[in-house]
Structures are given as C-alpha cells and as structure tokens.
Amino acid sequence: NAGVTQTPKFQVLKTGQSMTLQCAQDMNHEYMSWYRQDPGMGLRLIHYSVGAGITDQGEVPNGYNVSRSTTEDFPLRLLSAAPSQTSVYFCASSYSTGGREKLFFGSGTQLSVL
Amino acid sequence: AQTVTQSQPEMSVQEAETVTLSCTYDTSESNYYLFWYKQPPSRQMILVIRQEAYKQQNATENRFSVNFQKAAKSFSLKISDSQLGDTAMYFCAFMRDQGAQKLVFGQGTRLTINP
To answer: What whole-number distance in Å separates Cα of residue B81 and Cα of residue B63?
Structure first.
C-alpha cells in the first residue's frame, strides 16, 4: 500500500515553461486536493476534486489547471510557470464519507521557477 | 471564510519540558474539525491530533493533548515530556464538517527542542 505518491520530488523550471506534477493514490479515495506551501505560511488549497470528472477551485487557483479522469490520479498542470509559483506542493486524499476528516498527504514536490 | 491564526512563529524549550502552542480560529460554523499537524525537516505532513467540535472532551494522544475552548475559538496543543524528535514545524488547521474536505491552515510555529 503506497498511499499518496507525488512525482517528481524536486523540479527546476524556467519562466514560461510548462510541466505537470503527478499525484496518485491507491486507497480508492474519492477526494483529492492540491496545496502549496510558501515560506512563513501554512498550506493553501489550490484545487480539489470530489470524484472522477469533478474538480473545483480552492483559495489560490490562478496559473494552475487540474483534471480527474480516474479515481487514482489527480495531476496539477502549470501551463506557463512564473517565479511566484516557486513553492512546495502537496497532494492529499481522503474518503468522502466515513473517515472524511482523515487526509493522507504525499511527501511533497519542491518546485523552483527561475 | 474561516481563518486560523498561530501567534507564535518560533518556540524553543529544553528536552523533557512541557510546551504549549497556541492557535485561534474564526468561523461561523457550529460543527467542524480542528487539527494539529507536524512537519519535520523531511517535509512530510504528519497528523498529531484531531478534535471534533461537537465533542467537549479534549483529545489526547500519548504525550500530546489539546485545550479546546469552543466559545473562545481557541485550540492549543500541549506537548509533555518533550523529546528531540518533536523538533518540527507545527500547523493548526480547520475543516468544516460539511462539504468538501478543505483544510485551512495557520502560519505555523517552529518548535525546537534543545538537549
């Protein structure tokens, strides 16, 4: 049981480049989400999904796209990276009903945009 | 919108001492969850303790306990017999009982346990 797996763990981009952060979970969780963590701040919600085919915006969605084609995967896309997107990104998942309050976090992706 | 405030950016205590981390929050909800997460240098987010707002009894997990004051909207974490492995960032977080499981985090407290 791998839990929540994020790849890559580290990434350096140039301004304007695009990339996709991968997130996969093997617990059959309906709910998945992406957070970013900036220095001196707590995690902030970017996008979330309550099931395959359903996504919605969180607190800081600008500059990011998501899709949820399967229950297991929830990729986060940066279409044109900006230095302001330098951050640590966390993916999290949970059940939608029983145990909904227990979120499982991935180990994070450190992204630097130059 | 809910907000979570941690007013102590950094704290430092000696090993074996007891330390209390403060957290206040603002919400109009009556039912919700409150959490304390630990983030060591490995960056992993680790759930320390969870409190359900409708439960009056304060949650306890081994050396970790909370003081939940619903009327005052206060949720402090007490670590007893602190250990070197407790050194980490600690985040207080809020989640509504209904709807999507969106966590709202405080800014964090960097806790250092000195030998």
So the answer is: 7
Instruction: Name the residue facing A107 among B9, B43, B103 (closest C-beta).
Output: B43
The minimal CB distance from A94 to the residues B4, B91, B101 is found for: B101
pLDDT at A53 over 90: yes
Which of the four pLDDT bands, split at 50, 70 and 90, describes residue A39?
Answer: confident
B56 vs B38: CA distance, rounded Å? 24
**Whose CA is closest to B103, among B85, B87, B86, B91?**
B91
Calculate what percentage of chain A has a pLDDT beyond 90. 87
**H-helix or E-strand spanning residue B95:** strand B88-96
Amino acid type, A100:
R
In the 3-class helix/strand/coil scheme, how is A14-61 assigned residue by residue?
A: CCCCCEEEEEEECCCCCEEEEEEECCCCCEEEEEEEEECCEEEECCCC
Work out the number of other CB atoms within 10 angstroms of the CB of residue B46.
Answer: 13
Pick out chain B residues at pLDDT < 50: none
In angstroms, rounded to a whole number, what is the distance separating the alpha carbons of residues B78 and A23?
34
Task: Report chain A residues whose CB lies below 8 A from the CB of B45.
Answer: 43, 90, 92, 105, 108
C-beta atoms surrounding B68 within 10 Å: 20
Average pLDDT over residues A29-50: 94
Cβ separation A48–B107 shorter than 8 A: no
